[in-house]
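Hi support team,

I've been running sequence recovery on a batch of backbones for a student project. Most finish fine, but this one hangs at about 90% for roughly twenty minutes before it completes. I'm not sure whether the input is malformed or the queue is just slow. I've pasted the structure tokens below so you can try to reproduce it. Let me know if you need the job ID as well.

Thanks,
M.K.
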């Protein structure tokens, strides 16, 4: 029985990756480091600190410089977030949140971002959210399962009773390691291993996700289907 959905934020509910790109690009230009959108892709779902390491790509830096640079980049990013329009929610996301809510399931947000609260403020999504786990919640970032486990504990559900929706390889790996059902969004090679894969949430309904899991069900025989309300596993 699925009792909860846990959504990643960037790349799932909203496209803050573009703002991250612009902020990293501004820092990279200042430091004279080549950086483009393709290199930004490697930072998807990755912690702020690890993203800087990817940007530096082995260039030497002191601890103090690294701290200053992540702070500077975050300042640029927050400037952009403050201008983010409330309708910057990705297609299909609001519809799925509503369906999950109407089906009586709990909703959590599990994002690596330390700006999660600000993003939820800007998007006006707090009304859909029962629990938030963010970049401050756990010590080990994705691909460790800790962030999703933290969120599941807040929602009072077991991993096998919850679906994680993720767009990043590190996030899919983390959710699988935690024993969750996983929906991967994006190219199959990026979200390989997820139990159901869609290009995005556009046009994806709760029943589509649960039906996709049913293929898994025949393999695992762990779940039963109810015919009432939405079909739930
Ligand atoms: P911040 P997610 C992640 O969000 C982003 O995908 C990643 O690019 C970013 O470095 C990370 O949050 C940390 O964000 O600098 O705001 O703390 O996909 O986990 O929602
Ligand atoms: Mg993401």
């Amino acid at each position: 029985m699925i009792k909860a959905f846990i959504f990643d934020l960037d790349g799932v509910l909203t496209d803050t990756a573009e703002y991250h790109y612009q902020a990293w690009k501004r820092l990279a230009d200042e430091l004279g480091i080549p950086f483009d959108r393709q290199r930004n892709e490697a930072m998807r779902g990755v912690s702020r600190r690890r993203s800087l390491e990817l940007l530096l790509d082995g260039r030497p830096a002191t601890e103090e410089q690294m701290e200053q640079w992540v702070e500077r980049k975050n300042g640029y990013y927050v400037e952009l977030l403050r201008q983010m329009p409330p309708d910057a929610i990705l297609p299909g996301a609001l519809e799925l949140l509503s369906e999950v809510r109407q089906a009586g399931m709990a909703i959590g947000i599990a994002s690596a971002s330390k700006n999660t609260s600000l993003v939820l403020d800007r998007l006006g999504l707090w009304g859909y959210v029962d629990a938030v786990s963010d970049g401050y919640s756990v010590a080990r970032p994705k691909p460790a399962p800790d962030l999703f486990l933290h969120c599941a504990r807040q929602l009072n559900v077991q991993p096998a009773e919850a679906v994680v929706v993720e767009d990043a390889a590190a996030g899919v790996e983390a959710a699988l390691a935690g024993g969750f059902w996983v929906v991967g969004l994006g190219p199959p090679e990026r979200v390989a291993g997820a139990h159901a894969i869609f290009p995005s949430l556009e046009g994806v309904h709760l029943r589509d996700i649960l039906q996709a899991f049913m293929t898994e069900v025949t393999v695992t025989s762990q779940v039963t289907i109810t015919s009432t309300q939405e079909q739930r596993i």
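--
Follow-up from support: It reproduced on our side and the slowdown came from queue contention, not your input. Residues 8, 10-12, 44-45, 167-168, 171 surround magnesium ion (ligand 2) (CB under 6 Å). No action needed from you.
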